[in-house]
């Protein structure tokens, strides 16, 4: 019992001595690599396998996501450019239409409605007013893609929710809905 009391007293005394140091200076570092990171020269050869850390991709390459970058600006001129130049690269087939319908039911139906007439749940519940019908707009695949990427009016961008292929699949389905409305 005497030994236990002396051990407790010694631990207490040592802890008091340790805690009375200058608190403005760093004390003991158990894992110094956690405190001091290894810096990389942004343009140097310090990366993995001595590869440069920050280099531009080779011209004409495609990003890891597997689709080309969309560099048309979010301006009226960009909208007109997308409308004139962009075409759907996916084949119009049953598989793409079915997948487009599934995605439309997830992302678009609440505002644009089942038929694309702008009479979705949010319009019926008076959450948003003035949701356009696809029949009322002069749209094509390029303009729809541009609106999905950048949004328009109250509609925000859906580019982060959809992959490149999924955007074009939705566009196939939207064009089918527009064709049905115009009949």
Give a topology summary.
Layout: H1 2-19, H2 32-35, H3 76-85, H4 94-107, H5 109-112, H6 121-124, H7 141-150, H8 164-182
Sum up the structure in keywords.
single chain; 183 residues; mainly alpha; 8 helices; elongated
What does this structure look like?
It contains 8 helices and no strands. The protein has 183 residues and is an all-alpha fold. Helix 4 packs across helix 8. The model has no long low-confidence stretch (mean pLDDT 83).
Largest sheet: none
- Rg computed from alpha carbons, rounded to a whole number of angstroms: 30 Å
Separate helix tally: 8
Overall pLDDT: 83
H and E order: HHHHHHHH
Give the uncertain stretches in residue-range form: none
Number of strands: 0
Q: Summarize the amount of helix as a percent range.
A: 40-55%
Strand content: under 5%
Distance between the termini: 97 Å
- Secondary structure category: mainly alpha
Overall 3D form: elongated
Summary of the model, kept short:
With 183 residues, this protein is mainly alpha-helical. The protein is 45% helix and 0% strand.
